[in-house]
Amino acid sequence: MMESHLRCPTPGCGQESDRNAAEYLCPSCHGLLELSYDYQREAAERWPALWRSRGPGGSSADRSGVWRFREMLPLFDETDQVVSLGEGVTPLVDLPRAASWVGVELLSVKHQGANPSGSFKDLGMTVCMTEAVRLRARVVACASTGNTSSSMAAYAASAGLKAVVFVPRGAVSGAKLAQALDFGARVVEVGDNFDQAFRILRELAPRLGLYLVNSVNPFRLEGQKSIAMGLLEQCDWRPPDYIVLPGGNLGNVSAVGKGLRELAELGLLTKMPRLVVVQAEGAAPFHQLWSTGSSELTPVPDPSTRATAIRIGNPANWPRARRALERTEGLTAAVSDMEIEAAKRELADCGIGCEPASASTLAGVRKLRLQGLMERGARVVLILTGHQLKDTDYITERPAGAAIRTAGSTVEEVEALVRPWV
User: Fold this and answer.
1) CA-to-CA distance for 169 and 167, rounded, in angstroms?
2) What is the model's pTM?
3) Buried b (16+ CB within 10 A) or exposed e, 312-321
4) Torsion of CA 312, 329, 377, 251, to 10 degrees
5) For 284, how many CA atoms within 13 A lie in the half-sphere containing its CB?
6) pLDDT tens readout for residues 242-292
7) What angle do CA 257, 260, 261 make, to 5 degrees?
8) Cα 346–Cα 347–Cα 349 angle in degrees, nearest 5
9) What is each CA distance from 17 to 5, 9, 315, in whole angstroms?
10) Are the C-beta atoms of residues 129 and 213 closer than 8 Å to each other?
11) What is the mean pLDDT of the chain?
């Protein structure tokens, strides 16, 4: 197995730590650590053909859209050690009508809602949970706006581990809570928002011996970087101009940025796509940082948006995300809840269902086009992070376009109600 290190990516630091370190903060500068490897560029030339050769008829690792790219994740001696639910096999769908709506040449969606628990979190959780088993952890824990909790609970159940979830009071979709409960997790409501719940969890984790699986854990990002490999393979290694992601705790853009950087260093990337982070206007500290050129993030103490998955005011991964945007000449946008709703309707009209946070990506592209910050001839891929059924309350509470009507009991009464629609 190739040697792996925990390394501080902060410019001017670079200190390495042992992989078994319980804390994921650099002892020198307190930045978040990431995994690094001694890749061999010569060997990497053969990897795309090797990855294509793996598929449905192979081992469980070959069937995973994460572990199929295991040369990029050389963390475990044997692939039969991995905790996998078949994650990462997600579609790339072209949407010409949506492309016309936002004003770009080609627009596609890579839908992570097709993962086992219905979100992109599964890509990171398969790696994170495999590491938890290797470390003989007994209890895994996370703070969550919903998707992390349901994913962690599913993978913990598969691995035979106990799971504890910290969620903000009354701020998580019932559908997401139901998933975590169904998989046997213990759920604790604490604080008024994600940031408060996460702060309390980080204090408790070392006291109680909890294995923390939020995106400060570098093993989470290793799995999520496979989005880059899977997407580029589906594009026949012709990179799009832009890859657009929702921005909450900013782990996903950090992970995709790391994957793109490593592919470029290995000579497997001919052109670097520009990364775009889209946040909700009521929870947009990273957009504020990027658009003003600030060197420090100013947290939003009381974040507000109906797109609950990105209702985060103090994202832990902002330094990593900033470096990812710097390397890719990236962009940010902040969109209103009304703009997210309009984009969600547009996607639904194209037959694509997603949770509200995912729809922020389309809203962001439309805003950037209107601002003249994205060219009309652009080829754009949106990363949709969660399934349509993750937040059904959002859909049924929509004021227009999805109305439910009650008819009488006779054919004539029903006909009178339906006739205007046909």
Assistant:
1) 6
2) 0.93
3) bbbbbbbbbb
4) -30
5) 20
6) 999 999 999 999 999 999 999 999 999 999 999 999 999 999 999 999 999
7) 85
8) 65
9) 7, 12, 24
10) yes
11) 92
